[in-house]
Amino acid sequence: MAAAGDPWPGRWNADGLRDVVRDYALETLADPDAVLVVDETGFLKQGKASCGVARQYTGSAGKITNCQIGVFLAYVSRHGHALIDRGLYLPKAWTDDPARRAAAHVPAEVGFATKPRMARVMVERAIAAGVPFSWVAADTVYGVGEIEMALRRAGRGYVLGVTGAHEFNSWIGKPPVAGTAEEIAKDLAPAAWRRLSAGEGTKGPRLHDWAYLELADLEADEYVEGATGLWTRGLLIRRHLADGELAYFTTWCPAGTPIETLVAVEGRRWAIEDAFETAKNELGLDHNETRSWRGWHRHVSLVMLAFAVLAVTRHRANEAVEQTPPRMSRMSAPSSDGPSRRSGASPSASPSARSTRLSSSPGPLGVARIRRVLNART
User: Fold this and answer.
1) 373 or 93, higher pLDDT
2) What DSSP state is assigned to residue 48?
3) Mean pLDDT across the chain, nearest whole number?
4) Distance between CA atoms of 23 and 16, rounded to whole angstroms?
5) Residue 9: which of 267, 375, 302 has the closest Cα?
6) How far apart are CA 142 and CA 276, in angstroms?
7) Alpha helices of the chain — where are they, by DSSP H?
8) Which of 155, 275, 308, 331 could link 25 by a cystine bridge, Cβ 3.0 to 4.6 Å?
9) What are φ and ψ of residue 129, in 5° steps?
């Protein structure tokens, strides 16, 4: 609890709650083949006082506007998805202005960090916490630079967006490829393209044409000491069926990984968009009226907790439905010579089925642990 006379009596540790949310989500959603997805979303604001606010581009509005930008890390597995990390992006106009920093209570240790640097820190934090995953996916903001090398050294695969101007070259043992991603795509033969689904969408399979070029095979121990096996660097290209629009991705994966796997990893990026939409529309992610650094991170961490509870509840409810035997229809009910439909032999819902439904509620969040986090002083 806060000490008597503490000038911040309601203060609690937002980063501690972030870690609780991550651990709670993983108790249900964990899978070794999971994908970490990095993305950002905007928070439209009026005025200049809210921490990190500036005129900057946000995909939420599709333009440059007055807003805050939050960078997020989502955990996406076959069991569901949840937001497990977050950070408020501070433009240099904020980090270089002591008066604005003080007014918004920005911690002294927080300096300027690019969005890719923020993403790398989040991924490394997940690795340090033992989060099980095999892949990282992100769009073009995060697709080049230090995050690539960090993932190679961690022995994790990636499918990261790049622009058409990004240069690619093949090495010895691979078909000759050189030039920008856009130039390479233009020279591909029709047979190089395959129509594949990146996953189920609201209107069915999300079909695109895809091409994959292996560029180099490298020994794992070049990046991870003592590791064995070959890893392949490649270029994945997606073509929209309606307008032919192209998107490009740099890839890193164990040698022999099929294109279907890479397409599926890229397709997992939709989950973070779903998380943003749900968190804003249903949980008030963008209804934050605080102006401080701490206020933003507290609000967002609480919304992440609510979203994680929904994700766990959904997964357990779906599991319960799958495990519950189908109810007997009137047409298939036993004849009068057999057990009565009202007898214990064929109840409308067996005790085991009822207990399964009851157990579909989210597991304990560790109330004592959360209370310790909320009472901890930052």
Assistant:
1) 93
2) S
3) 86
4) 11
5) 375
6) 18
7) 14-29, 92-95, 98-103, 115-128, 146-154, 181-186, 259-267, 270-283, 293-323, 351-358, 367-375
8) 308
9) -85, 0
Question: Quick one: which H or E segment has residue 110?
Answer: none
Which neighbouring-strand residues pair with 77? Answer: 80
Domain limits, the chain: 34-135+273-321, 140-268
**pLDDT for residue 324 is more than 80:** no
Report d(CA 288, CA 280) in Å as an integer. 10
Mean pLDDT of 135-143: 94
Q: Give burial (CB, 10 Å; 0-12/13-18/19+) of 53.
A: buried
In the chain, the percentage of residues whose pLDDT exceeds 90 is 73
pLDDT number for residue 322: 77
Q: Two tokens at 214?
A: 């292996």
Q: Which candidate, 316, 305, 307, places its Cα nearest to that of 365?
A: 305
Average of per-residue pLDDT across 174-201: 95
Q: How confident is the model at residue 228 (pLDDT cuts 50, 70, 90)?
A: confident
